[in-house]
């Protein structure tokens, strides 16, 4: 009542302003009251997240791959046979390798690197001994990636007439010799214990080496008979040299005695220090122990 009593003493303009302010205040109060009732009438959330009390996944969780970082749920490791030369990223990740380790495998293969035996996989950058021991039993290297010298010699089926011809072919007598680097498959078969399969293996390995510098290299061919060695003679004249300061990494690693890491070490040395003058300059590299240097030296030209 006092409010209306004071309004009677106010000027007309002041009364109008005061009444307008009162109307605005009342309207605002009504709006706030009505909106509050609407929100209060909204039913509580139902569903798996509300009932279980687990916070609803956020967009950040979705970007992390479908699970929260702290919940401890990661894809289970599934060990299975694999070839590191052909395995895809899905298989490699399923073996428990980290994504950056898989990237290193892909980079190695893109540069022409080949895993020729299970032990080569142990050189994967960042691979721990525990990981290698766990994966080694499952490594399967395809025969296509193994050295040709490890191929088993196939047994040939020959007709009776051919067998008789071979049985009566003229073999070398004790004390007779043939030139290992100049003989073709026909002449090689004159050596006692050497048939067509071994003769082809000798020629193929000789071509890959660039020639033999020692008769004992024949024993690097799987199953080659040691009793045949006395019938061969070799000379350095038939050995093709590698121009070690000019060949590329890919060209160097084509030689049976040079793997990818050795070829890369040679190229890195040339890039950092200039041309090689002796393989002994690489003796501090773990890929060039003394026995490897001695075996490779006859094939190197500076």
Folded structure, characterized:
Helices cover 41% and strands 3% of the residues. The strands form two sheets. The chain has a two-stranded parallel sheet with strand order 1-2. A two-stranded parallel ribbon has the order 3-4. It is rod-shaped, with a radius of gyration of 41 Å. The chain contains 14 helices and four strands. It has four domains: 2-39; 89-146; 151-238, DNA polymerase, domain 1 (Orthogonal Bundle), CATH 1.10.150; 242-301. This is ComEA protein. It comes from Segatella buccae. One of its GO terms (biological process) is protein secretion by the type II secretion system.
**CATH class term of the largest domain:** Mainly Alpha
**Can you tell me the residue ranges where pLDDT is under 50 for at least 5 consecutive residues?**
42-73
Indicate the radius of gyration in whole angstroms.
41 Å
- Count helical runs: 14
Q: What is the mean pLDDT?
A: 80
| Proportion in β-strands | under 5%
Q: Which tags fit this structure?
A:
single chain; 302 residues; DNA polymerase, domain 1; 4 domains; two-stranded parallel ribbon; 41% helix; rod-shaped
Question: Gist?
Answer:
The protein is an all-alpha fold and 302 residues long. It is 41% helix and 3% strand.
Question: Topology, please?
Answer:
Blueprint: H1 2-7, H2 12-40, H3 48-52, H4 59-63, H5 89-94, H6 99-110, H7 118-121, H8 129-135, H9 160-167, E1 178-179, H10 185-188, H11 196-209, E2 232-233, E3 242-243, H12 249-252, H13 260-273, H14 290-296, E4 300-301
């Amino acid at each position: 009542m006092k409010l209306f009593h004071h309004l009677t003493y106010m000027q007309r303009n002041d009364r109008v302003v005061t009444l307008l302010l009162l109307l605005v205040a009342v309207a605002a109060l009504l709006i706030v009251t009505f909106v509050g009732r609407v929100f209060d009438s909204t039913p509580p959330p139902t569903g798996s997240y509300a009932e279980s009390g687990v916070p609803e996944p956020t967009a950040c969780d979705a970007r992390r791959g479908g699970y929260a970082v702290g919940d401890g749920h990661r894809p289970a490791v599934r060990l299975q046979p694999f070839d590191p030369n052909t395995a895809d990223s899905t298989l490699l990740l399923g073996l428990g390798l980290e994504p950056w380790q898989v990237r290193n495998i892909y980079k190695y293969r893109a540069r022409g690197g080949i895993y020729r035996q299970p032990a080569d996989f142990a050189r994967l950058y960042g691979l721990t001994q525990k990981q290698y021991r766990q994966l080694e039993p499952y490594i399967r290297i395809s025969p296509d990636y193994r050295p040709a010298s490890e191929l088993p010699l196939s047994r040939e089926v020959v007709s009776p007439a051919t067998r008789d011809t071979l049985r009566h072919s003229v073999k070398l007598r004790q004390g007779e010799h043939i030139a290992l680097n100049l003989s073709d498959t026909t002449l090689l078969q004159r050596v006692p214990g050497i048939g067509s399969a071994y003769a082809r293996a000798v020629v193929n390995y000789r071509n890959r080496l660039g020639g033999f510098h020692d008769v004992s290299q024949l024993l690097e061919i799987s199953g080659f008979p040691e009793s045949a060695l006395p019938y061969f003679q070799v000379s350095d004249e038939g050995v093709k040299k590698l121009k070690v300061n000019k060949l590329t990494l890919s060209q160097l690693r084509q030689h049976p005695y040079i793997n990818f890491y050795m070829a890369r070490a040679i190229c890195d040395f040339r890039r950092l220090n200039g041309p090689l003058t002796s393989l002994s300059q690489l003796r501090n590299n773990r890929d060039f122990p003394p026995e490897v240097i001695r075996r490779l030296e006859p094939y190197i030209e500076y």
